[in-house]
Amino acid sequence: MAFTLYSLIQAAILCVNAVAVLHEERFLSKIGWGVDQTVGGFGDEPGVKVQLMNLVRSVRTVMRVPLIAVNAVCIVLLLLFG
Amino acid sequence: MDYTATQSGFRQRKLQPNMRLRTSLVDGSEGSQLFEDTSGAASGPQTGNQQAGPQAAGFPGQSILSDPMSNLAMAYGSSLASQGREMVDKNLDRFIPISKLKYYFAVDTVYVGKKLGLLVFPYMHENWEVSYQQDTPVAPRFDVNAPDLYIPAMGFITYILVAGLALGTQNKFSPELLGVQASSAFVWLIMEVLAVLLSLYLVTVNTDLTTIDLLAFSGYKYVGMIVGVVAGLLFGRPAYYLSLLWCCVAIFVFMIRTLRLKLLSEAAAEGRLVRGAKNQLRMYLTMSIAAAQPIFMYWLTYHLIR
User: Fold this and answer.
1) Interface confidence (ipTM) of the complex
2) Searching chain B, which residue's CA lies closest to the CA of residue A7?
3) What is the reported pTM?
4) How far is B299 from chain A (nearest CA, A)?
5) Nearest one of B304, B170, B152 to B221, comparing CA atoms
6) In Å, how far is A58's CA from the nearest CA of chain B?
7) E strands along chain B, which residues?
8) What is the pLDDT of residues B84-143, one digit of tens each?
9) From chain B, which residues contact A within 8 Å (Cβ)?
């Protein structure tokens, strides 16, 4: 498989976009992945699922604004250069 | 008499700013070069003196530089240049931790030889712990268990060259193909490091493995790949499969023995059977990181030996 760095960047943008569109109350709470369901024990055992939910929430919070810029740039470049 | 006096005076005056410029350039370049000369040879001052000699001998023809205004300008220019260099270094250090990278390249020939032997035959080695010196890990030169970036970097470049050679024997070579191979292998490396980082985060392992350590460990498989491909080129497909099998098993054992001490808890690392879901998860994680290496080794080389 001939991967290039450009395809890695494309894949990264697509994955981050996919994580960013997961809506908190319409979708994640319905399947039991909402942040109100992360209250577990106070021990040092967060568990894989809680870590994953925290990761999704933090990616959505952090990448919201940069994604707007990156997507706008991608759209313009794809329109211009195909 | 008068003429020679002024000429020798001129030459003396010329020599000093040149020496200053030359030594400041030498010092500046020592400070700003990425990898300091850790071989211990004090060759800096001697080459500085030798270079100042021919420099001063070339100058007598230029009399415009004899006046103090341009001396001042030259001194000012050299101080500006060194300030600019400091600023660039400081800003570059913020993005790429160059001081941390220097540690990974502090290797010498004995270490490289021992480490290569360990990568191909890890079965006799007894003590896999990294030695520390007052909380900081010892440089790779002094400890064969410490990870370094020299072998992975050289291995990567050699792998690309050997891949070009192998593709040439199949009459498929073109210069763009080298770039394609390089970026493809690099992308797989980045994806592997990201996957390991993600799984370390999910399993909440408290470890002192940095990202650069993981990059180093993932880069050690290039040694086995090169051995396999070269054996395949010299002796045919059965030799390729045999040597790749040997190197895969060796890398598997190497990774497990190295990661065991870093990822698992103390009791499990000593071999005692420890129950508990968390320890089991860590054991699975170690096993899967080690098992991913042979898979990648085969994946990245099977198309080279047809």
Assistant:
1) 0.85
2) B187
3) 0.71
4) 9
5) B152
6) 13
7) 132-133, 136-137
8) 888 887 777 666 777 778 888 888 899 999 999 999 898 888 888 888 777 777 887 888
9) 180, 183-184, 186-188, 190-191, 201-204, 278, 281
